[in-house]
Amino acid sequence: MRNPRKARRAWWIKQLHSWHWISAAISLVGMLLFAITGITLNHASSISAQPRVTEGSVTLPAPFATQLRSEPPAPDAPLPGAVADHLREAVSLDARGKPAEWSADEVYVALPGPGSDAWIAIDRASGAVTSEHTDRGWISYLNDLHKGRNSGDAWFWFIDVFAVACIVFTLTGLFLLQIHARHRPSTWPLVGLGLLIPVVIAILFIH
């Protein structure tokens, strides 16, 4: 009875170690990124950044301007493909497939992104285009990635996958702690301290 029991225990320990290092490898870079940006977000008011603003002003060629005078299929319809392609070259902003706000006089496209903000406004009668792009720097870019702000669907799913990897990493680590705790008496006091410190801070200092 003892040998099968030892074999099962050895198998589970091997599985825990395997899943622990695999999840650690998957989440390593992401965890480092989120830890660093946790610090930069916590000290955002102390980190100075000088936004760089780029403005643009062009006039659409007559065939493109004509396309904007007809009624859009929906109030938030994107710009026609040819118009968006032209603007990508003319003002260096990509509005392809982005929802636009159509009014009687103007088409407005908001183009927010991580660490940046941008917009394009087009006069439907004259085809006059004004644009603005604000770049807040790489720290703001990384901070927005941390928050998942204006980062797109791919980054949205990456955060979910990364979070699952972190959960696997911590839970397998917890089970490994339990297995080795008998040889390391300080294990559970340290784990308890890791729980107690944020709880005490939350109760006593957060109001």
From TrEMBL:
Keywords: Membrane, Transmembrane, Transmembrane helix. The chain crosses the membrane at residues 21-41, 154-176, 188-206. It comes from the Bacteria. The keyword Membrane applies. It holds the Pfam family PepSY_TM_like_2. PANTHER family: INNER MEMBRANE PROTEIN WITH PEPSY TM HELIX (PTHR40115). This is PepSY-associated TM helix domain-containing protein.
